[in-house]
Amino acid sequence: MCIRDRLYDIFNKMRREGLLGIEKDIDDPAASPIFSKHTGIAKIHGATDFIIDYLRVMTLGGVAAHDLDALFDAELETHQSIDVERMTLAGLLDRWLEATFGEMRVATRNSYKSIRRLHVDPALGGVLAAGLTRTQLSAYYSAKMRGNGKPPLAETTVAHHHSMIKAAFNWTIDEEQLAANPAQRVKNPPALRPRVRPVWSMEEIAHVVVRARGLQVHAAGVLAALSGPRAWEDEDKTVLE
Prior knowledge:
Elements: H1 2-17, H2 23-27, H3 33-37, E1 44-45, H4 47-60, H5 65-78, E2 82-83, H6 89-99, H7 106-124, H8 134-146, H9 155-174, H10 202-211, H11 218-227, H12 234-237
Antiparallel strand pairs: 1-2
Helix pairs in contact: 6-9, 8-9, 10-11
C-alpha cells in the first residue's frame, strides 16, 4: 500500500510539474515531502533506492520507453525486497548464508547449518530479527549450557552459536537492513576457550617409565619421553636414568 501511495504522489507531481519537477525529490529524498510522507516504505530494504534510480533515468532521458520497461522488468525479477519488520531470525540466517556463499570454508558453512537445524532454528528461528533482544539470546545460551532435560552443551560449543548469530547480524547492518546487533550487546557471552591439555612433569614420566620396565611399551615410552614435542633440558633427562 505504501509503495502504491508513494508512486501515485510521484506520478501526480510529474503530471502537474513535468519530469524536472521531481529533481529535488530524487536528489535529496530525505528532505522530500513525498518520500518522507510514506515512512513505511523506508523499512523495505532497497525500495527507495530502486524507485529513485529509475526516476533519475527517466529525468535524464535518452532511454526508449520499451527499453526502460524491459530493464525495469528484468531487475524486478532479480530484485529481492526485504520487509525487515517481518524478517525472522531464520530468514536472516538464510539470506546471510546465501549472500556469503563462497566466502567461508565448506566445513564452517556445514557446521552453521547443523547448528541451525539442531538448535537455533527450533528455539529462535521464528523470532522477528528486528525484535530479537540480548536477553533472549542470553537465555538461549544459558539454556543450551544447562541442558534443561537434554545433554548440556559445552561453553565453547555455544560460543560458535553466538559467533554465527553475531556475524549474520553484522552482515545485515553492513547491508543497511538493520541498525543494531543484539548479539553484540550480550553481556558475558559464551567464549571460545582453548582446550587445556594436561602435561606430565618429568617426575611423573619417570615414575611411569620405571613401572613399565619389562613391558613391551617400555622402550616406546622412553623414546616418547625423550624425543616428544616438549623440549627437555639435559639435566631433566637424568631423572629417567
